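Q: Hi! First time doing this. I have a protein sequence and I read that you can turn it into a structure. Is that right? Here it is:
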Amino acid sequence: MGSTKSLCKLLLAAAVALPFTAFSGVQAHAAVIISVGFAPPVLPVYAQPICPGPGYLWTPGYWAYGPDGYYWVPGVWVQPPMAGVLWTPAYWGWEGGAYIFHPGYWGPHVGFYGGINYGFGYTGIGFVGGEWRGGAFFYNRAVANIDVVHVTNVYVRNVTVVNHSTVAFNGGVGGVHARPSSFEMAAMHEHHFEPTANQMSHQGFAAQNRSQWASFNHGRPTVSAAASVGAFHDHPNNPGLAAHPNEREANQDQRIANGLRSGQMTSGEAAHAERTQSNIDQQVHNDRMANGGTLTNQERQQINHEQNAASRQIYRDNHNANSIGQNEVNQREANQEQRIANGERNGQMTSGEAARAQQNQANIARQTHNDRAANGGALNQQQHQQINREQNRDSRQIHQENHNGNHDGKGR
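A: Yes, that's right. Below is the predicted 3D structure, encoded as C-alpha cells:
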C-alpha cells in the first residue's frame, strides 16, 4: 500500500498546470489538468437518496484524485446556482497516454460526459431525470427518488438504458467508446458556471475522509450517496444516516405543522411540543459539538428515547378532545413549522438553528394561548398584530438559517 501511495503522490505532483478553459464565457477560468497513469475504479452501485425538497437537482458521484490516489465523491442532491441550468457530470478520459479529468459544470444544456452511465437519469447521453418548466424543476419519477408529499412537480417518462456498464472512464483499453454528438459539442461551448461552493466543499470533505479512498476501500466507498452536502458532513461513515439527515427531527416538526393546520393541535399544545423539540435539538447540537460533529451510540440511543416520548405526546395532542377551528394565526404557525421541517430534512438547518427556531415558535404559541385564554378564546386586533410582527421576525430568521451555508456537521 505504501508504494501505491507514493506512486499516487508522484503522479499528482506531475499534474500539468496549464490554462484549461473548462468553462466558456464570463465564467471561463484557468484550472489544473489532472493527469493520471492508471484508470479509476468502476462506479459503485448505490440507491439514490430521496430528494430533500423542491428545486434540488441530482449530481451523480464520481472518482476524483488527490495525493492519496482516487477517492469517491458521493452522489448528492444540491441546489443549482440559478433556475434553468442543468449539471454536466465530471468524467475521466484516456487522452495522450494518460487519464485526464474533465470537471463537471452547470449550463443550459447537458454536454458530453464521456458516455458514462451514472444512473438516475444520466444514462451516458444527456439527462432524463427531470426538466425545467419556467422557473420550476419537474422530476421524472421513473428514474428519480421523489416523495410526492413534499415535492409535487413530477411526471413519469420511462427511460431506456443502452449502456449498463459501470466503467468510469472514456476511451483506452476497457473504456466506454463514446464520442460527443453535435448537440453535445454545442452544449460544451455554451455559457457555463462552475460547481457551487457547496459542491466544492463536498468534494474537499470527501478527499479528507480515508474511508472514501480507493486505496483503503478497494473501490467500495463507505458512503456512495448522500441526501445533501450537510448529511455527508454529519454522517461521513454511516451510509444509512447520510441518506436521511435529521429525518426524525423533521418528521416530528412535520407532525406539529399538520396538527396546527388541521386544528387538532391547539397553540398551547404546540407550545409544549415545540419546546420539547427545541430541547432535544439543543441536546443534539451540544453532543455533536462535544464529539467533533457526530453522536456516539449512547447519545443516539438517548435522543431516540426522548423522541419516542415526544412522539407519543404529539400523538395524544393530535387525537384528544382539544381542537380549534382553522384560523390565520395557527396556519401561519403551521407554515413556520413546515419550513423548519424542510430545513432539517434537506440539511440546510442545523440542529442548533432548529433549536432556536423551535424556541421562538414555542414562545409565540404560548403567547397566543395566553392571549386567547384571557379573551374568551379569541385574539383582539392589537394582539393579532403583535403576533404577526413576531412571526414576521421569526420568518426572516428561518430564511436566514436556511440560506446561510451552515449544514449539520459543520459551521455550528
